[in-house]
Amino acid sequence: MTEYKTPMMKQYMSIKEKYPDCLLFFRMGDFYELFLNDAEIGSKILDITLTSRGKGKDGKIPMCGVPYHSIDSYLPKIINEGYKAAICEQLSDASESKEIVERDVVRIITPGTVVDEKMLDNKTNNYVLSLNIEKSKKGFVIAYADISTGIFIFRSFRNNPKLIHESVANEIKRINPNEIILNNELYSDYELIRNLKNTITSNITRIEKSNETEKKPKESIKSHFNIKSLEIFNIDESNESELLAINDLLNYLKYTQKSKIYHINKIQKENSQDYMYIDSNTINSLEIFHSNQIGNWKNKKNGLIDIIDKTITSMGGRLLKNWTLQPLINIKNINERLNAISEFKKNHEIREQFINLLSKISDMERILSKIGTGTANTRDLKGLANSINYSLEIINHLETEKISTDAIFMNKNELDQNITNVKKVLKIVDENIVDDPPVSIRDGGYIKPNINQELD
What we know:
Blueprint: H1 7-16, E1 22-28, E2 31-35, H2 36-46, E3 51-56, E4 59-67, H3 71-80, E5 84-90, E6 103-109, E7 128-133, E8 139-146, E9 151-158, H4 164-175, E10 179-182, H5 184-187, H6 190-199, E11 203-206, H7 217-225, H8 240-257, E12 268-269, H9 280-285, H10 304-308, H11 314-325, H12 331-346, H13 348-358, H14 364-372, H15 378-400, H16 412-432
Domain DNA mismatch repair protein MutS connector: 126-264
Family: Belongs to the DNA mismatch repair MutS family.
Domain DNA mismatch repair protein MutS core: 281-448
């Protein structure tokens, strides 16, 4: 490895060594710079000029850069090409630093851990998936999460050891994640990797163990959720494969977000007793997400979902896809859902009122995730507050019209208990944040006058 003499390049290399699999966007004043091989790759993907740093002590160094205020418009190109981006910020004030400015990576963006809605399909979940296979190969566990909505799901499978790789690939194809994370052992399994690459187009990432991931997985999971037992999530504490798959995914999310990911506050276990299982071949044959018609470019449209999706909100679009993939088989649950649909079908006035209210609701799931990962701004906060107010109106209409809510609110009692606390938070936001806050917190001007004399 080349030894660099300038403090800046020494700092750059020390950070780059920690993130060798990422393109390192290194903040320098008003620009994010890429150096060396990262610059050569980045300039081609971003279609920007590749230049070089002057021939000083370190010689000629390839480099390219993008303005800091437009970084979000460049990142989608990096992610769409299957690369990961490490965002390295200046952590100290250059005018106050006697030596080199302190810098460190504040977030890592990968195909499966994007939280910026500009980089996401608003009606599609963006999953990152973790896999663990039993040593006997008689079973495997899949855990997958959408960091942009807070969803975290796992499921255990039993299978014929001779068909393990085929079974894993078909199940992952059904979930269709944008990224798969594998430990060193699985990443080195040639047959597994071959089956995955022949079946799906997901990016595959090898994860390295760290001090955090070396913790006992059971205790690590309990610590994250601040619970004494994993039974609350139907996790078998004696099943090592379940614990490892879940813990690997949790730690990867924390590693990329550089935060505690507080919005990941529960784990769901897929229960085959409640839903009809639809495998990837059936999904393809039924053309649920795409048409198999020859000549339909990339087969990305004209599937069943494109025909039946009349949802108003992004959250509704994602829910419809999940419901379609998991048809109910419990008669009681089916009738509850049909009763709710019947109420809206026969009451035109109520239906129009709900359409009007829903059209004003932002993507609350993704706003909450931005808050949980520390990437939200005041406009997100105001949007969330407004959306909650409209949601409370919807709840009031449901109760006033005596529309069956059994299929809508799975835990109505808990919802009722939380409404009072939610209204307190809404009051704080309304009294302190201006109606039309700026996008960037750095711009200021988002606190109402006369709230704080020092701010005024």
